[in-house]
Write a structure and sequence with these properties.
It contains 13 helices and no strands. It is mostly helical.
């Protein structure tokens, strides 16, 4: 094993994320699946601890539709439009799901080939690799979401006695929260390595899961180091988003004064549209670049773990 050179991994990933503009659409779609690493599980555990239950949004949406139909609030003439809208949104959802999963696999393949050949691989070929592994990568993401939902439900169940009954134990809730978070973190790491084995090494799903477990057991401390480093970078990303928000408000700010000067609401509305458009472009750009960076970093280090093995920086410093 060798000491991990995170600087090399970050440098290589940043080169792909910032200089290879053709990867940005892949990064944007891959971001829809959630971020690889710690962010998904820590975010869900936090919101669950604050009282949000996994799947609550879907239950609320279903109850609204159920109340609308049962109360006869929807005219019969609207059923055709509702069926059309349902089909349209279902089709769009399936399309975005397909593109997102394929994009994730394509980014893993692009990074792996760039590491092996020291140059950017043909994006079209990597796209086809993502298509070939669509079902297995999709199943990995579904299993990850299901496991994280179970983790969230366990935290929510532990929080019920504490929130609604006087006999609830905060120590028990804290224990469940810590254990559930650790389980979710392990699941997130396993998902990263499983996708790597599927796309890069052409393993079957079961073989990839078993190999990912062995790789995690051997590199659990390295995994935490990488995950924590990328987690800290999320604060930099949030800061950039806030800066982008304030910059995007400049057109709305100036249009407000021109609207007062010319007594025209149209001018202000035009400024709002420009500001919203600028903010969305900035948001999409940041999400795309950071998504490419995260996927590339994990893929780069996965290849090093699988090929030569990596020692923890913490253990290296202690020695």
């Amino acid at each position: 094993m060798k000491t991990p050179l995170y600087r090399q991994a970050f440098s290589h990933s940043w080169h792909l994320a910032w200089k290879q503009h053709s990867l940005w659409p892949l990064g944007l779609f891959a971001a829809m699946l959630g971020q690889m690493g710690l962010v998904d599980v820590l975010t869900q555990s936090w919101f669950t601890a604050r009282g949000y239950h996994p799947g609550e949004g879907w239950r609320l949406l279903f109850s609204l539709f159920n109340e609308g139909f049962s109360a006869g609030m929807v005219p019969a003439s609207m059923f055709g439009w509702l069926a059309f809208l349902f089909t349209l949104f279902l089709g769009l959802g399936m399309f975005f799901l397909f593109v997102s999963v394929v994009s994730q696999g394509a980014l893993v393949d692009v990074t792996a080939r760039s590491v092996k050949r020291k140059k950017l691989h043909d994006i079209d070929k990597s796209w086809h690799v993502g298509v070939d592994h669509f079902w297995k990568v999709l199943l990995v993401n579904v299993l990850k979401k299901v496991m994280l939902m179970l983790v969230g439900l366990s935290v929510a169940a532990a929080a019920v006695p504490l929130l609604f009954f006087s006999g609830g134990s905060s120590a028990f809730f804290l224990l469940v929260f810590i254990v559930a978070s650790l389980v979710g973190i392990v699941v997130s790491f396993l998902a990263v390595y499983t996708v790597g084995y599927i796309v890069i090494e052409e393993y079957s799903l079961l073989e990839a899961i078993v190999a990912a477990w062995h790789l995690f057991v051997e590199h659990w401390l390295v995994s935490i180091e990488v995950g924590f480093s990328l987690f800290l970078l999320n604060f930099v990303v949030m800061f950039l988003i806030v800066v982008g928000l304030f910059v995007s408000l400049i057109p709305a700010f100036f249009s407000y004064f021109f609207a007062l000067l010319f007594s025209s609401g149209t001018v202000f509305a035009f400024g709002i549209v420009i500001s919203a458009t600028v903010f969305l472009l900035v948001l999409f750009l940041i999400a795309s670049v950071f998504s490419v960076f995260v996927v590339s970093t994990w893929t780069y280090l996965f290849m090093q773990m699988h090929k030569t093995g990596l020692k923890s920086h913490i253990l290296h410093w202690l020695r």
